Automatic annotation (TrEMBL):
Record keywords, A-Z: Heme, Iron, Metal-binding, Signal
Organism: Sedimentitalea todarodis
Domain Cytochrome c: 23-137
Name recorded for this polypeptide: Cytochrome C
The organism's taxonomic lineage, starting at the top: Bacteria, Pseudomonadati, Pseudomonadota, Alphaproteobacteria, Rhodobacterales
Signal peptide: 1-22
InterPro entries: Cyt_c-like_dom, Cyt_c-like_dom_sf
Length: 141
């Protein structure tokens, strides 16, 4: 394939990637019941958006913040190590993380002896959940 045919293909790829993560936020919101045993969503001003447990960190503003950076939560050592790299959560990597936290940590850290404190795997519709988390992550959170 010559370079002329190749360039348009590259230009289309980011659009395809975007479409792949166009999850349904309403579905994600309905599925949040599966996260509530461990996670709440509480806005900076104290407004409770989702009542939930404290086994996991508050997920308000999670999209756009550095992984493992809630100062009120003690993360496991592997997610803390990711945090040190400055990795920022976006729809794509959050969807991958919640699908299989341990496998994601192994891949990102490039090691097989990771420890995750999130034992749950959200195997179905993770892109919908990611889209929902965007709605509770305003730019100023
Ligand atoms: C059994 C409890 C449990 C359930 C259920 C659970 N989580 Fe978690 N989650 C955790 C814990 C604990 C952590 C911290 C992980 C660590 O430190 O290794 C975490 C971390 C996270 C993080 C990273 C947050 C950050 O501050 O970097 C995200 C995102 C997340 N969970 C999303 C979800 C979503 C969405 C669901 C529901 C689909 C869910 N979790 C279900 C316990 C849970």
């Amino acid at each position: 394939m010559g370079i002329k045919q190749f360039v348009p293909v590259l230009a289309v790829l980011p659009m395809l990637a975007g479409a792949a993560f166009a999850g349904d936020a309403e579905n994600g919101e309905a599925d949040f019941k599966l996260c509530k045993s461990c996670h709440a969503v509480i806005a900076t001003d104290g407004t409770v958006i989702q009542k939930g447990g404290k086994t996991g960190p508050n997920l308000y503003g999670v999209i756009g913040r550095v992984a493992g950076s809630d100062p009120d939560f003690r993360y496991g050592e592997s997610l803390a190590a990711v945090s040190e790299t400055g990795l920022v959560w976006d729809e794509e990597n959050v969807a991958a993380y919640i699908t299989d936290p341990k496998a994601w940590l192994e891949e990102v850290l490039g090691e097989s002896k990771v420890k995750t404190k999130m034992t749950y795997k959200h195997r179905k519709n993770a892109d919908d959940m990611a889209a929902y988390l965007v709605t509770v992550s305003p730019a100023d959170s």
